[in-house]
Amino acid sequence: MSIMQDVAVFVTVVETGSFTSAAQKLGSTPSAVSRQVSRLEDALKVRLLERSTRSLRLNATGEKVFAHCKSVLDSAQDVLDIADEAHGEPHGRLKIGVPKAYCAQVLRHAVPPFLNRYPDVEVQLVVTDRTLDPHYDDIDAVVTITDTPIEGLVAARLGVVKAVLCASPTYIAQHGKPRHPSELVNFDCLSLGETVTDNIWTFRRGDETVTVETNGRYIVNHTEIRMDAVCNHFGIGIFPDFTVNTQLRKGTVVTVLDDWAIEGRYQGRVNIQYPRSRHISPKLRAFVDFASSFLEGDFKRSGHGYGG
Fold first, then answer.
1. Domain at 163-262, CATH class
2. Candidate CATH numbers 3.10.180.10, 2.60.120.330, 3.40.50.11290, 3.40.190.10; the one for domain 91-160+267-304
3. Which pairing describes strands 56-58 and 92-98: parallel, antiparallel, or unpaired?
């Protein structure tokens, strides 16, 4: 087996933090991964990792070797990217991590026309709400929804997501409509329940900021189920704008406190992020350019758009 394969395994172990995590990423077993790292240490005649039953860490020599190994692998990727550029037309498989709701309701619409335009490209979407990083996960790029993108990655803009407060017209008719965020304490509010502070909502208007501890009988961390609860008059919920545009057009729900901006997660700039490289692959460049143009153009004009 090539020493370069052992180098790649060693880098993966360091980046993932354990033999087990590295094995999962590589489709191998912890024992096989451990043997490959030991083989690299034998070949170099130095110990790189300090092992214990509970931890795994680089020693001083290992830190130096890791830095060089990582540089070698990055250079090898640059070589592959140069070869891709020389090939001309985009080709090969493109693997992208995407948040579930955003993929289902936004990004998936860009994939079929992209594949029709670039017949030599394959797209694999890894749909998950787990935070992925192309440096450590087996993906080419990741879509993030945040105004503070992952450090160390290029961040190309795909759009903007705004948080929207919604309720059904029936609920508003029965309970009234809050005129100020502080009044939400008198209304049923649907929170995610993912953290102990998910029911604490913060609003901003100009220089004024208001934080409210809300309450409600229905708590669910699934957008479609939470929307179903709102449509069935169980209260007021916060949603990313792209998930409620259809219901707003139909009049199934109405917005609440329109003149206030809602702070929190699942909103902000939409980015497609990928590692910095002197030579971005044609397939990735093509997808970034196409998705950005499509989502800000045809998709938005069709009435499915979001943000601004």
1. alpha beta
2. 3.40.190.10
3. unpaired
Q: What local confidence, expressed as pLDDT, does residue 308 receive?
A: 44
Q: Where are the domains positioned within the chain?
A: 3-85, 91-160+267-304, 163-262
Q: What is the pTM of this model?
A: 0.68
What DSSP assignment string belongs to 167-229?
A: E-HHHHHHH---SSGGGGGGSBEEB--SSTTTTEEEEEETTEEEEEE-B-S-B-S-HHHHHHH
Cα–Cα distance measured from residue 188 to residue 236, given in angstroms and rounded to the nearest whole number: 6
Q: Which of 74-78, 143-147, 232-236, 276-280 has the lowest mean pLDDT?
A: 276-280
Cα distance from N-terminal residue to C-terminal residue, the chain: 52
- φ/ψ of residue 263, rounded to 5: -95, 155
Q: Tens digit of pLDDT for each residue in 219-235? A: 998 889 999 999 999 99
CATH no. for 3-85 = 1.10.10.10
Length of the chain: 308
Instruction: Please tell me what DSSP assigns to residue 239.
Output: E
